[in-house]
Structures are given as C-alpha cells and as structure tokens.
Amino acid sequence: MKRLSLLCAVLLAALTTASTLFAAQIRVYVSEFAVTGAANKDELKTTLQTLFASRLSTDAVLSVDSPVGADVLVKGSYIAFGKVFSLDAVAKDANGRVIARAFQQGESQDELIPAAGRLGQGLAAEIAAKVKPGVVLVPQPAAAPAAAPASDLVRPGAPQPGGDLVKASTTSDIVKPQDLSRTASGGWMSQRLTGTLNGIAPGKAAADGTREFYVADEQALRLYRKADNLKLVAEVSFSPRERVLGVDSADLDGNGTPEAYVTIMDGESLASQVWVADGNSLKRVAAKLPYYFRGIALEGREHRIYAQQMGSDKDYYGDVHELVKTGDRYELKNPVKLPRFGYLYNFNRFRDGAGNSYTVVINEDGYLIVYSAAGEELWRSADKFGGSVTYFKREDLANVRTSGDPFRWIFLEQRITVTPAGEVVVPKNEGMFVIGNNRSYKKSSVYAFAWNGSALDEVWHTKQSQNYLADYVYDAGRKELVALEVVKKEGLMDKGASVVAVKRLE
C-alpha cells in the first residue's frame, strides 16, 4: 500500500511538472505568408507557413495551429526579385504591439530553407526575451457581413460532367461554360503507360482509322498504334549519356510516313537523331545531328520541322531555320527572323484578317507576348502560360558564386500552335512549386485565343486536368487535342506513369 501511494505521488509530481513546463511555453501562431513575385502563390503561402512554424518552435516557444489562445501572432512575407528573395516576419502581442521583427535574404532558391531556419531561430529568441507566457489573445468576433444587393450579372453556369471543352461566350463579357462534347461520345483515354513520358508526335494514319504515335521519355523512343487501345509496337533505347528532350514529326521525304525527329543531348552537346516507323519496327535514318528540333505550322499553314543550333556560350545560337531533306542529307534553309527574346521553343506566328503578320512568344517568366512584324511589343498577358519540367544542363563555372551550382539548367518551353483559323493554342501547367531547379506541376489546361486587333481574347479552354501536361498534338483535321499527361511522377523505386488522352474540340 505504501508503495502504491508512493508511486501515485511520483506520477502526480511528474504530471504537475510537465503541466508547469507546458504552461511556461509561449504559444505562437504563424499565419499564412504574404507572397510577392513568385509563381504559384497559393501553395507557397501555406508551405512557408508550415516551414516557418516548425523552425520557430523551441524549449521556450511552442507553435500552435490556431490563433485562439495564442500569446503571440506572427505574420510573414516572401518577396522575390528574379533569383534573389527576402523573408520578413513580425511578431505582435495580444494588444497588437510589435515585439519583434526579423528578416533573412538569399540569392537563390537553394537558400530558402536555411534562411527560414535562421529567421525562426532569431525571432524565437526575441519573443522568449520579451514575452511572458500566459497572456492569451482573444480574437474579436467578426462583424456579420451585410446582405449583398441583388445583382444584374448572371453567374457562370457550372460545366457539365464529361465535357472536355469550356467555350467563352462571344456575345457577352459574362462567360457561360457550355457542354460542347462528352468524353463518352468523343473523348478517349489510353491505359496507364510506364514511365514519365516527355514527348509525343503523330505518325502514320491508316484508312481504317488506326493511327500511330511516336512517344518519348528521357532514354527511349516508342512507337504506339492506336485503335481501341494503345498498343506498343516498337521501342529503341539510347545510351546513358544521351538524354531525349523531345520528339517531333513530319513527312519531309514525301513518302506518306512521317519521320520522328528526336532532339537528344549527348553530355553537353546536341546529337539528335531521325527515326521512322518501318512496319512493326523503328529504323534510324540519321544520327549525330547538331540541332534542336521542333515541328511548327507557322501561321497555321503546312507543318514543317524547324531547327536551331547551340553555341559554345549560348544555349540557342543563330537564327531558327527550316530543316530540309535533300537525298540523304539534312540542311538548314529559309531562316526565320524572331523578336529579341524569341528562340525555337517559345514562338509561333499568326495573321489577322487583314493579312498582317504577328509573332507570339512565351517569355522566360511565362507570359504570352505579341510582337508586330517590326518587332514592337503590342500586348502581354496577365496570366502565365506554358511550363515544363524538361531540361538540360551545361557547365557554368563563371556564375557558380551567384547561383551556387556549377551547371546552368535550361528548361524547354511548351509548344505554341496556330490553327488554320488563326487561333493561338497554348498549354497552361499550374500548381507549381519551385525550390532551386526542382519543378513540380499538378494540373493543366489548354487555351485557345484569337487576336482582336489589340489583344488576344480567349476563345475556349479545355476542362482542367489534375495531371501535368508533358506535350500535346493539335489535330485540326479531326478537331482533336491529343494530350500526353503524367499521372505519377518518377520516384526512387518507381518509373512513374503517363497516359494519352484524346479530347474533342467541338
């Protein structure tokens, strides 16, 4: 009995001590961060909130999940100017009095997490020195919102399930999504394909409706045949030194079978290849071509292959040229003049009703820009478009002090398509979070715009997909969009997975 009494006394003392220690901690609530100058602000707000709250907790400071009962409220901000960023935080007591301020700066996204750690430690030390635990912040009840007056505006209707296309109204500024097609009546999706695929291009189409597609990942080129499902017909693999950046196709020799133009980096040099479907196999036509490739239908006309070279110190060197096949040789002809920041992977051209020519590009920050034939900037989008995780690296020791990386990472851009009707089609990958050179996208749509003489107006966009769009094919003849989507990212023990989805555009 004495032992039981002694044990109870010890437990009571321990619980009392623990309660005292817990009560002695200063309870701090970190609100969402304000984010300026960074992509995907919504995700970054909560990510920084969680990151900073975990770094703020110490023996004296306890991070809590709610402002109710908190001794201190902390508000933070993240401001980015190019690669340079600043993290700022301010702590206020129950009366709204500022008790601590702190900031950290960095010159690259690789420094973000260490900067958050230093900021949390510094602010926690100031809070512990100036605040006594137990001062509870009681939030004031919010005033009830006034009833909204009746509106004359018609709210956009909800899109019908299964529709692949949302069309903007042409008679009103109030957009009403319309159910123009249903997946069951026209759309199609393949089975799961192994790997995080990065490129797709059309192959030969048969009279019975069977179609072939060239599909690539970083280490292989595949030939698929589409009927009721997607059948793998042939596959070729490349050496570990070689990295596939993309695949495009065109029938340059005019024999009825499009060739696959595969852009390949061998180490830090271009060593691209040309392949063609030969029955149920793939046959190599050319190798070690020092060109980037992209299939483009300038102004919505004939689809051709264009190429650009790499310089010793420039990632894209010289003019963009049309690739022409003469016998067994490939030559660069018919240079294309581009605006100052235009290069092979970020441009196309369209014409207006009067026949005037314009160039549209996606700039390095992701904005659509329209230039006149004279190179004058006419319009710039408010939203960002494009977005790709496909990249290659080149040694860049001259900037290692500022970048912290001995290599320069070059990300390719999504293709811009111009339809025969003059519409500009461009993808939009969203949900991006970037730390250093690591990119991640979670959802995507494809948009079509028409030039109204002053700006690009939206004509339609596809229903948002919850997957990253790696590449796509716009088929004007069939009025279809063939999308290559990554449904599962590659992991340490998993190759990832992709699908091919056909979306009707009528």
From TrEMBL:
Superkingdom of origin: Bacteria
InterPro entries named among the record's database cross-references: Bulb-type_lectin_dom_sf, FG-GAP
Annotated signal peptide: 1-23
Keywords from the UniProt entry: Signal
Keyword Signal assigned: yes
Protein name, as recorded: VCBS repeat-containing protein
Organism: Geobacter metallireducens
